[in-house]
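Honest question from a wet-lab person: if I give you the sequences of every part of a complex, can you actually get the arrangement of the whole thing, not just the pieces? Trying it with mine:
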Amino acid sequence: MDFDFSSEQYLLRDTVRDLLRRECTPGAVRAAWASESGRSPERWRKLADLGVVGLTVAEEHGGAGMDEVDLVLILEEAGRSLLPEPLLETTAVGAPLLARSGSDTLRAEWLPRIAAGDATVTVGLAGSPYVADATADLVVLERQGALHAVTQDRLTLQPLRSVDRARRLFSVTAELGDDTLLSTSAAVARWAFDHAAAATAAELVGVAGAMLDMTVAYVKQREQFGRRIGSFQAVQHKLAETLLLVDSARSAVYYAAWALANDTPDASIAASVAKAYASDAERRANAEALQLHGGIGFTWEHDLHLWLKRGKALELQYGDADLHRRRIADWIYATAG
Amino acid sequence: MNFELSGEDAAFRDEVRAWFADHREQIEHTRAVDWEAGGEAFERYRAWERALFEAGLGAVTWPVEYGGRGASMVQQAILNEEYTLADAPNRINRLGLGLLGPTLMVYGTPEQKARHLPRILACDEIWCQGYSEPNAGSDLASLRTRAVREGDEFVVNGQKIWTSLGRFGDWIFTLVRTDPAAPKHKGITFLLVDMHSPGIEVRPLIQIDGSARFAEVFFTDVRVPVANVVGRVDDGWTVAMALLGFERGGGLYGPALFNRILRDVVELSRREPRGEGVAADDPDVRRRVAQSYIETRVYELTVQRALTRLARGEAPGPEASLNKLYWSEMKVRLDELALDILGPRAELGPGSPQAENDGGWYGDYLYARASTIFAGTSEVQKNIIAQRVLGLPRE
Ligand SMILES: Cc1cc2nc3c(=O)[nH]c(=O)nc-3n(C[C@H](O)[C@H](O)[C@H](O)COP(=O)(O)OP(=O)(O)OC[C@H]3O[C@@H](n4cnc5c(N)ncnc54)[C@H](O)[C@@H]3O)c2cc1C
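Yes, you can. This is the full assembly:
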């Protein structure tokens, strides 16, 4: 038994962390809030050059041929740095889905371009009325129980404004036909949802970890009543409880990645455990981060709200904690006593 | 990353599982009584310890030179898991095996090791932990039991309290003040005391559940050889903290117990009537059962992560407090859920024909309430996490 990552996996994580520390600063995230597209093709190119965008694409298609376990630490970093680009949609869900269910032609057409950073793919699964990054070159849509892979010429997009303005959401209408059909299998749709939920959980852990670190740093220097507020026990206990939740969430998130990578029988449930636990842990970190920053945290100027809003959005996407609890309960009671 | 047991570990699991299967009868015979009744009942538990010892399962992680197998932490976890699955009896000498033994291996003299380790293993002598005093609980270092040196002996006067197994103890490892002038963490000495010595009086304390599993221990001019000091005189705090490390971290609490409780809770919810149907039809019950599944599963995974680090030789640090805080609080929630599913039936105690499991859920719930107090309260664990893991200022 070895429930840890290899030194290579940590090395890749560190490389991505360094890149994002330079390229995805809070200032850069604010730039994404303000810009027309909200996206930085240069940053995406750098991620692609590192092999991150094509991480889950097979080597024969020009990717790194790695799996969910290799990706999970990187998604955590994407969450930590609030990466605006659609790494989750493209690398955690879209590309693996095309590889799994696409025809040979579709795969040969799209996977090499995705891996090279020349094309992006996003997903709009049942249960989410809006599609993030629907301007992607290819959009996988779930409609009437079927998955379709649709190009822009068949789509009409209506941009919507998210409270987290780095998120670009759209209402999408599509002309679907047999030629756009990717899969009619419920198992495949479920597989896609599990991947999206587990990847979101990984980002949530990153967002929550960043908020916890910021808050710990803040309470170590802010003084009131002639002492550092981090020395008040009421403050210490909140942060200790938050750490316990965030660190425990990592166990769930890493295991879900492994279960999906190995297609274990409990993979769906592992994804639900991860999404439910990580959503709750982030919610707590979100609450304590603002509370312990006091007034300064409530300002537009302070960066904290960038994390607060991303965290809230991720809590709710691909099933909130309650949806996943219902899924788990149904599974528990469906299995024979 | 992988979750397979190695060949060696799988073989160990099979051996242990087979051994428990062969000892079904003894397990049931032992569990038919409560050791707390004393006398023959207690002796059954001692016989069980001896059987484990003879099978080489008494203290598997102890090094071979001390009578163990030098097994890994992973194997210890496997044994714990199988132990729970087999519903095997409570370990009456866990304080000797789990806490004092490993501490003596690090700090004990050759004579102390030779004298005590074999008797702990064979369960010839039962050990108690004499840390807490009436005025020294969370603030352990304010303890006042005095030990004054007279030649080759210490003369001990004072009182310990909440001493688990106090009525059955043969020996007690205890903290005494040897230098009252020194700052409170200095001037403490770690001393092994024979509980059959003149001047020791044990008074049972009845617990919240009516049993007397802990006691007060009074010391009046008890003479203890200086050779029974572990570590250095006045430096007992170091030894005491090392032992607490074994208590909180070394024995990562086994996930199997919580998994089994959850399974029983699910089973209960399927048959406990509620309105027209059963509790499992109630969306609130389902939600809480799902949350309990999530919590027990995450606990199991977190323990596996910690075991991976321990297996690589990393020392259990203050992170052990995260483990203790997690399981103790989760256990209370699990037992509360069971009581809520039982509804008004939950309060029926042992002997009531309508009681579920002879009132066992309530008993488990009460015991869970102690787990957020002993071995460092939840508040103390949070202080440790805040200050030693997050690095927040003490001031
Ligand atoms: C079933 C059981 C078995 C036990 N067995 C043993 C044994 O075998 N040997 C032994 O030595 N001891 C044993 N104990 C004692 C146990 O270790 C103590 O009860 C525990 O350390 C708490 O001490 P206390 O009871 O004096 O409570 P106190 O320390 O008085 O605590 C009372 C409350 O105040 C809070 N508090 C105290 N200090 C702080 C602080 N700094 N910050 C925030 N909150 C604080 C506590 O968290 C608690 O909620 C046992 C206890 C129980 C319940």
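Two things worth pointing out. The beta strands of chain B are 127-130, 146-150, 153-164, 171-177, 188-194, 200-205, 214-225, 229-230, 273-274, 277-278. The two ends of chain B are 42 Å apart (CA to CA).
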